[in-house]
Amino acid sequence: MNGHAAKEGNGRGRGRRPADEVRADVLRTAGDLLLTEGIADLTFERVAKASGVSKTTLYKWWPSKGALALDGYFHAVRETLDFPDTGDVRADLLTQLRAFAHVMIHTPGGRVLAELIGESQTDQDLATAYRKLYSSHRRRLAAERLHRAQELGQIRTDIDVQVLVDQLWGAVYHRLLIPDEPVTDAFIVALVNNLLDGVRPK
Amino acid sequence: MNGHAAKEGNGRGRGRRPADEVRADVLRTAGDLLLTEGIADLTFERVAKASGVSKTTLYKWWPSKGALALDGYFHAVRETLDFPDTGDVRADLLTQLRAFAHVMIHTPGGRVLAELIGESQTDQDLATAYRKLYSSHRRRLAAERLHRAQELGQIRTDIDVQVLVDQLWGAVYHRLLIPDEPVTDAFIVALVNNLLDGVRPK
């Protein structure tokens, strides 16, 4: 971002690399670890070794394991959880929510987020990092897609799209964090239909 | 429940009392403590003293502080979070959700639940207690009210009311647990209107 050269090589003898590139490497390493093995195996030691960056630098960029995890996770899922725009908001929401549910249920990602949200209830620094490095960005991306649907007249302009974020993704988090009921495909479909069509008799 | 006489008095010299009555006393004591002071001050010691019941009996009925807290909390808020039935589902949902938001935001109840949900992400026993002693009962009560709205033709019968639970109360929990956005009255009103009316142009 700032264009300064990083002080470290990558352990493969190529010498100095731009900080942005080093940073991206670290985030990729952290994100890969999270999505394949979960958060227990994510240590500064391990990320330093795998990315060829000193622990000092890691701590300078990410003051805590939670911060590193959240930044790494955001970058790891960014592409998978992209918001498609085919012009059909119902189809696009279904596509995105299905991808989201898949990451939550079938990769260690769901556990990672649940544990970070859990810990952030009693750890103010982690709560701030969670919002700053993860949830506020995800909210913004979702809102951008929903605003485009408003511009096309598919969602009324008097609707506060941030409320829809809670009624779609927030509803999935609710089942993830308090698993009284399962996250099924029928659930995902119902989330979208209930909001677009309303639940009163037609 | 079982009609056996409890082995303890209430510390005020009235001798043996029915177990149900003793149990109700303990739950009231625990619930009052939670709603006025939060969970940090809830100890078996303190509840035993305040209710005149031995710690041994408390541990027999509630194997952990979490279990006692959840059972106490459920009973403490049961009346406040009752689901009114005036025959108008929109008005009744608004009334109930406003009462729910009030407890969550303006009493220590919200923090209590957030911390219990948080801890239950890494404590399986607490997660089970949470569902068994609190959330499953709340879900059932909400579903009963929504089913009556279906019987009156106010909500379509093909709607799975459990999904509505996630899109109404779950959405509030989402803002409580990840406070990117505040729980305002406009938010509560939007939750209900979005689902009853749908968000597409009319």
From TrEMBL, chains A, B:
Transmembrane segments: none
Domain of life: Bacteria
InterPro entries listed in its UniProt record: Homeodomain-like_sf (IPR009057), HTH-type_TetR-like_transc_reg (IPR050109), HTH_TetR (IPR001647), Tet_transcr_reg_TetR-rel_C_sf (IPR036271), TetR_C (IPR011075)
Record-annotated HTH tetR-type domain positions: 20-80
Molecular-function annotations in GO: DNA-binding transcription factor activity; transcription cis-regulatory region binding
SUPFAM superfamilies: Homeodomain-like (SSF46689), Tetracyclin repressor-like, C-terminal domain (SSF48498)
Feature: DNA-binding region: 43-62
Residue ranges of the region described as Disordered: 1-20
Keywords: DNA-binding, Transcription, Transcription regulation
Classification via PANTHER family: HTH-TYPE TRANSCRIPTIONAL REGULATOR RUTR (PTHR30055), TETR-FAMILY TRANSCRIPTIONAL REGULATOR (PTHR30055:SF148)
Name recorded for this polypeptide: TetR/AcrR family transcriptional regulator
Annotated organism of origin: Micromonospora radicis
